[in-house]
Amino acid sequence: MTSDEARVDRLAGTIDRLRREIDEARAAADGRALVELAKGVLVERLRCGPAQAAEQLALLADQAGTTQLELAVDIINEVSGDGLTEPPPLPDPAAAVRFRTAESALLHADDTETVARSLLAHALAPLGATAVAIWSAGKDSSLTLAGNAGFTDGEAGRWRYVPPGVATAARHALTERETVWITSLDESGLPSIGSGLPGRVAVPAGTGGRITGVLEICWPHPLEPQPQSVHRQVEALAELCATTLDGSAPEVHADHLLSAPSELTDLADGLLDPALVLGPEVSPDGMLTDFRVHHVNARFVDIAGRPRAAVAGKLLLEAYPLAAAEGNLFDKIEHAYATGEPYRTERMTLAALVDEVPLTVTASVSVTRHGALVLVVWRVHDETARLANLLQHAQRLGRVGGFEEEPDTGGVVWNSQLYALYGLPPTADPVPLAKITAYAHPDDVPALNGFVRNVLHHHQPASAAFRLQRADGVTRHVRVIAEPVLDSFDVLIAVRGAYQDVSAQHWTEVALSATQDQLAITAQEAAERNKLTLQLQQVIMPPTHPTIDAFGLRVAVRYRPAAQEELVGGDWYDAVVLPSKQILLSVGDITGHGIEGATGMVVLRNALRGLAATGAGPGQLLTWLNLVAHHLSNNIMATALCGLYDPHTRVLRWARAGHLPPVLIRNERGELLPMLGGLLLGALADVSYQEGEVLLEPGDTLLLYTDGLVERRDVPLDDCLDRLCETVTGPRRDLEELLDHLLDTSEANTGDDTCIVGVQLT
């Protein structure tokens, strides 16, 4: 070891020693603080001085055979009743001392980081926990890692801040305001700090109904259900953490919150809507029970008709007892106060009792927390104003502009939509109905003259469509509707009506007409294309194939095109005697239909027939055919089944590329051959295919087919294959008759092509 390394080791040892001495000094200081606190309890209970209390504590400890610190903790537990030192799951005489020491450290700690380390060392490590995180909650429901222990610096740095909306274990505890016990973090699906620590609990940290953060405790193993004593301990520790997270916040008591802070009251008074400033009412045991109205702004109008003075200073549920029922306003206020998350809604039902009769109104409501207070603002929806607003939106969306004019005075009134339609500023003079032709296309003037004459002279409702030519050069297609208003003597006193901009509809009709013409051309081209595809398919794949009868083997084929012409072209089959006297049997199904499917089928069918002349086995043939599909064609993908029958040995060697397995009918029973391994053609460049063999016996029948024979949209494929085996089970039939029977009784409903190749050994 070099001298530099020795100096570094000595320095590290010195740092560790000093750290231990600091921790021991802190523990001793915390222990002394607990002893002094117990002395204070004795002073109050025994009505004695500090010296007498110290002597009494020492005497009692000596008589009980315990230390003064342990006795001090027992005294504190007796008078506190806070559940902090409930017995842990395993007997530990020093557990109470550790928990009270942790409490003392929390109350005297300078920062939250020290609090986290003390919690872990004194209170949580005995429970098996190995890490702790203390989160501070922001007003926007974000989370900031205020303190941690047991995590690496890198892990803590990555989780320094959690923005709003990210669902973590701590966020769940904050928004739901309840303790979250997680057996395994991975199984919960919630991300959080310390991903390698599966067991954990997240506890809201707060007092008096106000949550200031979250205490998250981690275990290195999946967490088993914990006893109620541990539940109470972690909740008590979370309450202690709340004091460190919000130590600067003022206490909330009704006796000194008789008036809200001036800044918040000024804000409420500056609003144009009714507003209440609420403060929490906390019971002696620290539970939030209600909110008190500390300020009512000048715009306040009580929905029950009471004056402001009748509401100010009252409890919320006393002034509005139905706030906990109709619209659940109280719950929203409580949630905003607890989490700091604002609540806003455009529609909420507010209720009040008037002579024991509930009165309800609909209002927009906003609830926000400001320090220890809550600001509630609402705006009651006026029905007339709401309907007018809806009408204005409807007119805007429908591009409708209304007008009214009085012929006697010449007065004309337009709404804002009509000015926009004419392209005129709101300060321009409206255009009377009699001068409408001055803004119309010349070809539309005769029709408009008739429209004006019917309304103004014949006093009849009328409508007309015309092209509005604006001063800015824009032409709009418009429909105008008008009706006369007559007095009891049939004298015209007013004309009311509306303009509607139908330009979009007009151009849509023009585009639709052009599209219909194009569709007609496309449909004709598609029909011709489908006809060509069908003709090509029928030439290459006729519905029947001449029966092959050679070497004691009969081979028959059936082919049924797709029910819809545009779907034809996917399936193919082949049965041919090779120069080697072996018989090639194959079926396949191309992905895609139409001319592309038909041409792809031709490529693969002819390629396989040519490759089979090499004498290679079915597995090798499919390997080569896969290269053809992948490299030498236009992205063809297909399933295929290839078989070679040797008449001398009666052995059929076969392989499959993603295709359905053959069905062997033997002894009047149909069974599927094994599902050999083999990827569909064209998916990957380098694929190998497993081969299988079957020895055909006299009387055996083998069926090769495509999915169009068996597949149903509403039935699992395995059930469809079982149904096929049941169909062919029974007394032996002639091969031709069997294939016809399978086509006639097929329950497939996909409308796809169907190929069947039947092989029967006589």
TrEMBL record:
SMART domains named among the record's database cross-references: ANTAR, PP2C_SIG
Entry keywords, A to Z: Coiled coil, Hydrolase, Transcription, Transcription regulation
InterPro entries, alphabetized: ANTAR, Bact_Sigma-Reg, GAF-like_dom_sf, PAS-assoc_C, PAS-like_dom_sf, PAS_fold_3, PPM-type-like_dom_sf, PPM-type_phosphatase-like_dom
Coiled coil region boundaries: 1-28
PAC domain mapped to chain residues: 462-514
Pfam families to which the protein is assigned, alphabetical: ANTAR (PF03861), PAS_3 (PF08447), SpoIIE (PF07228)
Stretches assigned to the ANTAR domain: 15-76
Protein's UniProt name: SpoIIE family protein phosphatase
Organism per entry: Lentzea rhizosphaerae
